[in-house]
Every structure is written in C-alpha cells, then in structure tokens.
Design goal:
By secondary structure, the protein is of the alpha/beta class. Helices cover about 40% and strands about 15% of the residues. The chain has 16 helices and 14 strands. The strands form two sheets. An eight-stranded mixed β-sheet has the order 1-4-3-2-5-6-7-8, with helices on both faces. A six-stranded parallel β-sheet has the order 11-10-9-12-13-14, sandwiched between helices. Helix 1 packs across helix 16 and helix 8 crosses helix 14. It is globular and about 65 Å long.
C-alpha cells in the first residue's frame, strides 16, 4: 500500500521504519519528527514501513507499506512473532527499493539497518543507522537471548552493523554503548523536540479535574507513557501506598494503559482506585498530551534500567513540570539535581522523591522552571532540525570501507 505520492527520483532519502506507523508511542513519534525535519530542509523522502498504523498526511513524504498477506492488524512493543514476520516481508522490499537507483541515502531504524546495510553498501548508498534501542539489552528480556552466548552473538552483530554504517544516530544514553563497540564510529545522540503546547485555560483544567474526580486540594502525580515492564511501573506501584500514607493529598494519574487490566498488571488494589487516590487512563492521542500535563503538579519517570532516555521526559521538561526520576544513566542525559529530583531505583528512594516535591512547593516550582529553561534551549524544534542537518551534512554517495 502506498499513500501520498509526490514526485520522487534520484536523490530522495529512503527512511525505513519497522514499526506501526503512525502510532502514539516512542519510535513512531521519533520517526515522525525526523520526517518533518527532513522535509522542512527540502528533502524528498520515501518512508518504507509496516502495513499497520494510522495513515498520516506528511507533505513531501511518500508512505510505502509492505504487503500484509497475513492480515496482521497490530504489533506490540518489543520483540514478537508478528514483528519478526513483518520484518521478513520488509526485507525484500528494502532490496528492491535500494536497487531502483532512486535514493542517495538510506536512514534505517532499529533492526531494518541490518538488511539496509547489506544491500546498500555494494551500491554505494550511504547508510544511517538509527539506533532507538540497544539490541542485546532489548533482547535480554526473552529467554532465548538471555544467555551469555546469545548476548555475545548479538553484540558481534551490532558491532558489524556499526562498522558497516556511515553514521549512527542513537537514543540519548546509547552513545557510550556504540563507542565501546567501535571507538572511531561517527555517532551522535538524539535530543528530540518536546511539545511546547499553548497553556491550557484554567477553566478547562478545572473541568478535567472534576471529570476525573480530582478534588481541588489534591496534588496530581502524573505518569504518562506505555505500561511496558521496562518503564518501571512495578517500582511506582510499590511506592504509591507509601506516598499516600505520608502525603494523603496525593493523587496518582497514570496515562497510557493498554487493553489489559492495568490494575492487575500493577498489582494495585481496586480499593485505591475507588477511594479517589488513583486513576488509570488508556493511551491517549499525542494531541491530547497537553491536557494531561496541565493537570499535573509532579511528573514521574520510574524506569529502573535501560540506557535510552524515555521520550516522556522531554515532554515533562517542556511543560515545566517538577520531575521525580530514577537516578539512572538514561535520565542523567538531560536531568540533574538542578532540574529534577533523582532517586535510586528503589521503592523508598522514589517515595521520598515524590513526597519531597509534593511537600516543598518552592523547590518544585524552581526545578520545573529550570527544566523548562533547559528545554527551550536544547529541546525546541529549531535545535532538533539543526541536529538533523548535522547528521546529514556530508552524507553523499560512496560506500564506506569496512573497518
């Protein structure tokens, strides 16, 4: 399936995204920002992607979806049989597209970079490897890839891919991983653009609070993102009862639940929801994000492991929210003690951080303002377009020799 067909010809950029496009979740959001930045610079872009996801009008972008003989309708986050099957369908289309002679560069996201590099190098087409996550770490969750032999094999595969790529752009927190594999690799970290939405009117915030059953005296602690295990929601779930004991005015608003029973997933009692201390909402369109952020007094990112920075942190910062986050390398890429309260990834430490921001409103205001100032300087749209320009500067024909 192909939608939206501006003229394409030699000199276009092929972006390969092995995800549902579009869906309001991390990697598709990042791909959308990339596409908009490229077209703003006057580039012509073909996006090759999965046959699932919402159609989206992006001026200057031709969306090419691979065939869907298996009638797959959804793809979960992370490794799955459905994703493997769609990757297999994507691979011959990558080969066909690159051999067409229409492209001067290929920008391949995550695992699509393996076939992209294989087919592009003999043709002299430069390859940009977009490392949204570190494959060995991502696959460690699955028992087949958890052992030392499997992990060693995955690291070898990633090292070879890095060597075969002309440039590597990675999520915040992954640059050191890349340099550990190939010290002289050309690598940069993404700093994606946050959403600088207009202020939500006070009367609209009041209506939202009333609709959700949030009393005027309650202090709203917001989590906004997916409910995948790596997000650290189990840690947050264990902290909630202790926060409520120490700060009864707290109200937890968790946004982003999937179809499964979120209360059972988090191990929380239904009573906590009934007594007005907690609301769990399903995933919302990104356009509704500003309304969720406007309700919050404190934002939390409880991720306990992983080197890549959650995109939600960018949005928390642009909203000027005081942030309680776990003190892990990924968060340290943009957060420090001047812009957030950082806590050890332990229940009591996270509890202390949240309670501290609830109780000390002066500190909360100061930290939120500092986060907003940083975001305005580093996470605005012009800065992101500049990073894309830096990534593509000097990327022309000519295959890279393998190191």
């Amino acid at each position: 399936m192909t939608t939206q067909s501006p003229s394409t010809g030699k000199g276009a950029i092929l972006v390969i995204a092995p995800q549902p496009f579009y869906e309001d979740r991390g990697t598709p959001i990042a791909v959308l920002q990339l596409l908009r930045a490229l077209t703003e610079r006057g580039e012509r872009v073909d996006l090759l992607t999965f046959p699932v996801g919402a159609d989206m009008e992006i001026p200057g972008v031709r969306v090419i979806r691979v065939a869907n003989p298996l009638r797959i309708r959804s793809v979960p986050i992370g490794f799955s049989l459905r994703k493997v099957l769609l990757d297999l369908l994507l691979t011959p289309e990558i080969r066909r597209r690159l051999r067409s002679g229409a492209y001067r560069c290929v920008h391949a996201v995550e695992e699509s970079a393996f076939p992209a590099a294989h087919y592009a190098r003999p043709l002299g087409i430069p390859v940009i490897y977009d490392m949204q996550s570190y494959l060995p770490e991502q696959m460690r969750k699955h028992f087949v890839f958890r052992g030392p032999l499997a992990q060693r094999a995955l690291r070898r595969c990633v090292r070879r891919l890095v060597r075969r790529s002309d440039r590597i752009i990675c999520s915040s927190g992954l640059e050191e991983r890349v340099r550990a594999l190939v010290p002289n690799a050309w690598v940069r970290e993404w700093r994606f653009a946050g959403e600088f939405a207009e202020a939500v009117p006070a009367e609209e915030i009041a209506r939202q609070r009333e609709r959700l059953g949030i009393g005027p005296e309650r202090r709203v602690i917001l989590y906004c993102g997916t409910f995948e295990s790596y997000q650290g929601l189990d840690l947050l779930a264990k902290a909630i009862p202790e926060v409520m004991r120490r700060a009864p005015e707290a109200f937890f608003l968790l946004v982003g639940a999937g179809e499964r029973d979120a209360l059972r997933f988090l191990g929380l009692s239904e009573g906590m929801s009934r007594n007005g201390s907690l609301r769990i909402l399903p995933r919302r369109p990104r356009r509704d994000l500003s309304a969720c952020l406007a309700l919050a007094d404190v934002a939390v990112s409880p991720r306990a492991f992983g080197d890549n920075l959650p995109l939600k942190v960018f949005d928390y910062m642009t909203a000027g929210l005081p942030i309680a986050a776990t003190d892990i390398m990924a968060h340290r890429r943009v957060l420090n003690e001047e812009r957030a309260v950082l806590a050890r990834p332990e229940v009591h430490a996270l509890t202390d951080a949240i309670v501290r921001l609830i109780r000390d409103r002066e500190e909360a205001v100061r930290l939120g303002a500092a986060a907003r100032v940083y975001a305005e300087a580093e996470l605005g749209w012009p800065a992101f377009v500049g990073r894309v320009a830096d990534l593509y500067e000097g990327v022309t024909g000519g295959a890279k020799s393998e190191r």
